[in-house]
TrEMBL record:
Coiled coil: none annotated. It comes from the Bacteria. Residues 31-94, 159-239 form the Carboxymuconolactone decarboxylase-like domain. SUPFAM superfamilies: AhpD-like. The lineage of its organism: Bacteria, Pseudomonadati, Bacteroidota, Chitinophagia, Chitinophagales. InterPro entries: 4CMD/NDH-1_regulator, AhpD-like, CMD-like. This is Carboxymuconolactone decarboxylase family protein. It comes from Danxiaibacter flavus.
């Protein structure tokens, strides 16, 4: 009986050790993992569209398709970014994408389209849905009464909650993680919006992006857009990481 108990304990210890080792290994992999090829392309496409550099965008779109992005994923990237840099940039990006697809089709290239965005069947208050999504992304309870600029111009708070975080972020095709990569890419490119970039870099960490991946994101901004924009983004990222480190 004692021998059986000893064997059972040994087996449990070995199992716990193996599980712990596997978990630690997984954590190390997640920590050291770089952005995937499709994620890198999302950053480049979003930044080049926001900059309005259409010749380079053509190259970026081709690279994104070769990396494995579907037609509908790229379309969703170009639609999403209009909320941060405007309809003109978004529409020019979509027009450029149509040109790229036509050129590829003429060469006999058939690109994957995949499914369109699913209909949003949630019948609840759009404002409350957007407020809930924003709370999920920021991991912070949203105030019942608007403050600051939202109190000064309440309609912008309505647009923010109902349109940006309900109409746009509630769509599928792209994950929250991918949408945040689009967002910080645009904000880094247009510049002068450091408070918003600070908030969205925090959200990037909340949705699973790692510090190493965000440093890689800054490197892509440098090679795609320029050193000035990358330096400004790096300053904000360093502030975010320092604050998070002090809280832990």
């Amino acid at each position: 009986m004692n021998k059986i108990k000893v064997n059972t304990i040994i087996t449990l210890v070995i199992a716990i050790f193996c599980f712990t080792h596997k978990l630690e290994a997984q954590n190390n992999v997640d920590t050291n993992r770089t952005l995937s090829r499709t994620e890198q392309s999302i950053v480049s496409i979003a930044a080049l569209t926001a900059r309005g550099d259409l010749p380079k965008l053509k190259t970026g779109l081709n690279t994104g398709l070769k990396a494995g992005l579907t037609v509908n994923e790229i379309k969703e990237v170009l639609v999403h970014l209009y909320a941060y840099c405007g309809f003109p940039r978004s529409i020019r990006g979509l027009q450029t994408f149509v040109e790229v697809l036509d050129e590829r089709k003429a060469k006999g290239v058939s690109d994957k389209t995949e499914n369109d965005a699913s209909p949003i069947n949630n019948k609840g208050s759009k404002y409350e849905r957007g407020k809930k999504i924003l709370g999920t992304l920021t991991q912070t309870p949203q105030p019942d009464a608007p403050t600051g600029y939202s109190a000064f111009a309440p309609v912008i708070d309505t647009f923010l909650k109902e349109h940006l975080f309900a109409d746009i972020f509630e769509r599928d095709v792209l994950t929250y993680r991918e949408r945040e990569l689009v967002t910080v890419s645009v904000l880094s490119t247009i510049g002068g919006v450091e408070p918003m970039l600070h908030s969205h870099l925090n959200i990037c960490l909340n949705v699973g992006l790692t510090p190493k991946q965000l440093l890689q994101f800054v490197d892509i901004i440098k090679s795609t857009v320029g050193k000035k924009e990358a330096t400004a983004a790096r300053i904000v990222l360093d502030e975010v990481l320092k604050t998070r480190s002090n809280l832990n």
